[in-house]
Design brief:
The protein is an alpha/beta fold. It has ten helices and ten strands. The strands form two sheets. Strands 6-7-8-3-9-10 form a six-stranded mixed beta sheet, with helices on both faces. The chain has a four-stranded antiparallel beta sheet with strand order 2-1-4-5, with helices on one face. The two termini are 31 Å apart.
Amino acid sequence: MLDIRNVTKIFNAGTVNERKALDNISLSMSDGDFVTVIGGNGAGKSTLLNCIAGVYPVDEGTIMVDNIKLDRLPEYKRAKYLGRVFQDPMMGTAADMGIQENLALAWRRGNRRTLRWGIMDKEKELYRKLLASLDLGLEDRMAAKVGLLSGGQRQALTLLMATLNAPKMLLLDEHTAALDPKTARKVLELSDQFIKKEKLTTMMVTHNMRAALQYGNRLIMMNEGTILLDISGEEKAKLRIDDLLRLFEKAGADEFMNDRMLLSK
């Protein structure tokens, strides 16, 4: 489903601030893979997601999703193939529009626009059912402006919007980092529920080691724009946090032992 070959991304090339964020990185994911990506600040995790999404053009290499060459497509043309949830709950939704209007935009993503009535009753019933599955009471507030929602409610709505049309790939960029622990657990549980239900191919960037181990069938550790560890299947299922810390140390990635990762234990 995803094939990244020899991708390099350099910021501020040719200046004193030049930084190689991705260094000739290659990665393949099969249909239905759920990969968690972990690493320290500046490891290249979010840059990798942003290169897939088209926020940053790659300097070298190719990115294919379901045999569709993405690396030369602009960001808006990639949107029909990708679902994204951002770290900031304020992104991914239109604050001045209602909940049902936001869902309608997501429902029509990649489709041709027409002059038909905006949201039909049958469509509203579908949205009500989907919102009820979140167990946040949003099904009774479909006309409410999204800007009035809490961060957790907004992130759950963004997740629903991102998976509404079963994208070829779902990108989760530290999507619980700005939430309190209880709300973060709820959003992670919803993410796992949607991913399993739709069998979505997913890449989730996280600083939380427990979440990286608990979710997904494969774990990748990045450092300085390269992949240091790639663990899957039974080997990943047997891992514990102490095991992961030892693997970090063995890989020579001592800089991963920063406060944020240790606190996420």
